[in-house]
Amino acid sequence: MVASVPTEITTDPAEPAPGVAAACAAHGLTRGYRNAGRLAVDGVSFSARHGEVFGVLGRNGAGKTTLLRMLVGLLRPAGGTVRIRGAEVTGQAARAAAHVAYLPQSESALTDMSVRTAVEATARLRGLSRAHARRQSGALLAELGLEDLADARMERLSGGQRRLAGVATALAGQRPLLVLDEPTTGLDLDSRRTVWRALDRRRADGTAIVLVTHNVLEAESVLDRVLVLHQGRTVACDTPARLKERFGGLVRLQLSWRHTPPLTPADLGGDVRDHENRWSVRLPVEDARRTLTEILSGPAYTALDDFSLTPPSLEDVLLSCDTGEEAR
Ligand SMILES: Nc1ncnc2c1ncn2[C@@H]1O[C@H](COP(=O)(O)OP(=O)(O)OP(=O)(O)O)[C@@H](O)[C@H]1O
User: Fold this and answer.
1) Contact by Cβ (8 Å): 225, 52
2) Residue 161: which H helix or E strand, with range?
3) 328 lies in some domain
4) What share of residues in the chain are helix, strand, coil (percent, to 5)?
5) Among 14, 184, 221, 327, which is least packed by CB within 10 angstroms?
């Protein structure tokens, strides 16, 4: 199925006040690749402020990494501009780069160093004295639960451990803007929580964080605003709460069947997703309650294994952006 692009575009309501330099401001960023049918990033604008976690979300191939690489000056835009704390990334590259730490999606070049040396060396490169870099490296390894791996070479680590060490190097030097491409991908639950907590602390210190993630449910409580990309274009940019307001009054009803029930998905109304005996549908809250009461008191009850009624999540917003589905 070819997903259509939703017509509703929420504009960024949180531009910094005039005269206040955003941590990172992108205007009309555009970039394609040779022999590609469409632009990878097509006219994207947003700004991220200090003390804000700004999420860039979208399905695979939506253009997130291309966008991030333009933000940090690794990819030259075909059109548009990026300013980091007022410095133009292409025109004033060194000034802009001095403010930003970038965690790429794939592994860093520091593979033949120990974790401790990689973090310390990164902090030194970012201007810290030897003593300060050593202290900071120790603190970061402790914060991220990497102390036992401090002397292990990066190339000997598991994928998840290496990712965690990569996050530690991104945090080294306390740059005021962190641009992180999937910081929690490949991490186990404990490590993911550790990383979200570490980012939350940086936000509280006034750091601006622009990140890509597919762990949307976990990120929801951390993200102050999100930009949703679809085929290179912005389809939504707002706070998670305001994006979810699109779904005001709707809840998700999920039914899990033990065996085939004496009703069909169409009996529920709405657009039912049916996957391996699990039905999922978004309905107005009253309709959902009525449907559930009918099921619990009727012949379908004996076929029912489990059910849940949940308010809309950021994942619902993302799904609707992917499919072009309207909230109502
Ligand atoms: N080096 C490249 N050469 C040609 N096309 C590319 C290149 N890198 C990315 N693309 C294309 O550009 C589009 C955007 O890719 P990008 O990596 O930015 O997406 P993404 O949203 O980060 O995806 P994912 O979630 O899978 O990491 C895709 O259609 C991809 O195939």
Assistant:
1) yes
2) helix 159-171
3) no
4) 35, 25, 40
5) 221
Same-domain status, 132 and 177: yes
**Helix/strand/coil for 28:** strand
The CA distance from 2 to 113, in Å, is 45
| Domain co-membership, 225 together with 261 | no
Q: How far apart are CA 310 and CA 325, in angstroms?
A: 19
pLDDT tens-place string over residues 152-204: 999 899 999 999 999 999 999 999 999 999 999 999 999 999 999 999 999 99
User: Residues 137, 270: one domain?
Assistant: no
Task: Write the residue with the smallest CA distance to atom 3 of ligand 1.
Answer: 33
The CB density around residue 268, as the number of other CB atoms within 10 Å, is 21
- The model's pTM is 0.83
Beta strands in 49-176 (DSSP E): 53-57, 79-84, 87-88, 100-103
**C-alpha 33 – ligand 1 centre gap (Å):** 9
Contact (CB, 8 A) for 197 and 222: no
218 and 257 share one domain: no
Is ligand 1 within 6 A of the CB of residue 75? no
State the average pLDDT over residues 2-8: 37
Query: Atom 12 in ligand 1: which residue has the minimum CA distance?
Result: 40
Q: How far is residue 295's CA from residue 320's CA, in Å, rounded to a whole number?
A: 27
> Is residue 321 domain-resident?
no
Q: Residue 224 has which token pair?
A: 């102050």
CA distance from start to end of the chain: 21
Phi, psi (deg, nearest 5) at residue 151: -100, 5
The sign of the CA dihedral 103, 108, 109, 111 is positive
Ligand 1 pocket, residue 270 CB under 6 Å: no
ipTM exceeds 0.90:
yes
Report how far residue 245's alpha carbon sits from residue 239's, in angstroms, rounded to the nearest whole number.
10
Domain that holds residue 140: 24-239
Which of 29, 38, 65 to mutate to test ligand 1, by most ligand atoms within 8 A of the CB atom?
65
